[in-house]
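Changelog-adjacent note: as of this version, every example in the card shows the full chain rather than a window. The one below runs 338 residues end to end.
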Amino acid sequence: MTGTTPLKIEEPPIVSTQEGITLPMLNFNEQINSVRGANYVPSTSVNNCQFWEEYDQATIDRELGYAEELGLNSIRVFLQYLVFEDQPELAVTRFDAFCSTAQRHGLSVLPVLFDDCFGPEPELGPYPEPTPGVHNSMWRRSPGISRMALSCRAQLRRYVEAYVGAFRDDARVLAWEIYNEPSSEPPTMALMNDAFDWVRQLSPAQPLTACWSGTYLSDIVNLHLYTSPSRQPDELGRIVESTESFRKPVLVTEFLGRPHKGTLKETLPLFAERGWGWYFWELMIGKTQVDLPWSQDVAEHPDGVAYQGLLYPDGRAYDAAEIELIKTYTGAPFAVTQ
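Full-length structure tokens:
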């Protein structure tokens, strides 16, 4: 299929920042392996539709400041087709503003174009409050089941080309994640293949990635690790072996599921040992309610333990020990205790 050959970077290219300063990129492998990041949705948003439609700049600036204090160097965000469909120019402008805010805080950006998780159809605001007691109760797919038909391909291609075309040489963008958790259904597989082709034809400077079946089209192995090294060592061994068999740089774009599906204390040493970059899920504990367990884990989840998320909206940590642990891997200064 045209355009599905993975990107190969033989020499570190020169790239330009938005300020016009030219800097040599790190060696491709080193650049990916050095990622220390988090998934991000503003704590004031119930999902990525609200994130990009309402775009709360004050909250975003403050919370990316928290990421900077942790010493993180990258942030993963989910774009949403429906917001682009409604206001295409504004949607792209807001992503540009987000990249600039991230850059001020020392963060590159990993944008996700399509996603098959949770609710079948995205909806624009007004946005209800999240459902009490339910993890990520308002999260919706992008573009949504009704827009997967071939009759919608032209609009979806415009969406992909608008973002990638505008930022294909932009040093603020680390890579393009074409599809998050693609299902094995034919409409998803067809759209993912098409989207990889559309992006390859634009010849972006950045590598492309997708998890699961998208690995075969990707420049980077994109791993979601919800496995406890201490509780499931055999399963972990199989995952490590299969992941590294592709002989590509590895990004763990999702991990963390206290206490049974991998804690930071268990996983960060593993990533350091293997030389894998990472993004934990997620930076904030807010309206996405990721501190609550997935529905299939409710029965075994202990009371009082946050399933995911690191910081509350006021910047307080769920677990101060985790903050200090992260800083040992990012090189950020430790808090001075009196």
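Structural remarks: Residues 1-26 have pLDDT under 50 and may be disordered.
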